[in-house]
Amino acid sequence: MRLPRGLWALTAVCAAAIALTTGCGGGDGDDASATDEWASSVCTAVDSWRTSVDAAADAIQADPTREGIQEAADDLTTATEKLVDDLNGLGRPETEAGQEAQESVDALTNELEQSVTTMENAVDDASDASGILNAVSVISGNLVTMGQSVTSTLTSIQELEGADELRQAFEQADSCANLGNPSS
Q1: DSSP-assigned letter for residue 177
Q2: H helix or E strand, kind and range, residue 32
Q3: Among the listed ranges 28-37, 112-121, 131-140, which one has the minimum average pLDDT value?
Q4: How far, in Å, CA of 80 to CA of 115, rounded?
Q5: What is the CATH number of the domain that holds 36?
Q6: 3-class SS at 173?
Q7: In this model, does residue 42 exceed pLDDT 70?
Q8: What is the spatial distance between Cα 93 and Cα 21, in angstroms, rounded to a whole number?
């Protein structure tokens, strides 16, 4: 089954949006403090998730059947659950803005989990061509939203009052270099 051109474009937009996600810069990576390690771990987790999202978007394009979409959705679920687990496992950064940063991460992980549920439900309901097209649309829309949420969360963490140490840690973490810097 072939998808209409508009859905291919939506999938391409989705992949581009995810590729632009999140808020870190590059740096020279001196001795790492706990805050530096926290920021680096956040970027590593997000970069790994982003790679999985890109692969799933490619898989949907390559196999836009019910089975292909189900497999891609399963991969997205696994990648997102890993991101949520990784972020939750980091705990709170020990900085002046650490509690607020943790609250932002908690809100993000809740939002990501809700998006996964929405995508899974759309795939479960895809029993015919119309359902498959709807599932692709729901997945694509949720991926864009998820990518934007990750970006805005990391940006807001860096902009918290008293977050100078966090902002500096994101700028200096080598693992953040591939993710771009939304504050520039």
Answers
A1: G
A2: none
A3: 28-37
A4: 9
A5: 1.20.120
A6: coil
A7: yes
A8: 21
